[in-house]
Amino acid sequence: MKLTDVWFTALSESENGNMVFISGRDHIMSFIKSGKFKERAEIYWKYEGDSKGMPHNDTAKLMEEVLEALRNSMEKDKLAILTGIYTGDNERTMVFVTRNVPAFGERLNSALSSFELLPITIYTEKDPDNEEYLDMLEMKSNESE
Fold it and tell me: What is the residue-wise DSSP string for the chain?
């Protein structure tokens, strides 16, 4: 299985009407179907956004640096795979599927150790059928219609 860096974008709307941009990982069904990634980790980053709920340039730049550090750390041996990024309505959510939540947490701390304390919270849950990822894929289908 080869992990590619192919993404799709879609738009959604928050409950209060703000736009949310979705970047979803494409061409990873072989990993999803392998049955090895039974848990999901979501990293939430609340920020003070512009009038449309999008991050200001400095915040966006920091978010990209953090995202790159996380991807490099998690995906080097496929402990976890970044499947989606939701940005808008004053929050970014980064979604990973992982083989092992405790190892994910340890690696997250290590990957982020060079950054100042970040305003993030982490949520994990068992998702053996990868429902969140499959739901996000449906948004890709809806965008192409």
Answer: ------EEEEEEE-TTS-EEEEEEE-S-HHHHHTT---EEEEEEEE----TTSPPPHHHHHHHHHHHHHHHHHHHTTTSEEEEEEEEETTEEEEEEEES-HHHHHHHHHHHTTTSPPP-EEEEEEE-TT-HHHHHHHHHHHHHT-
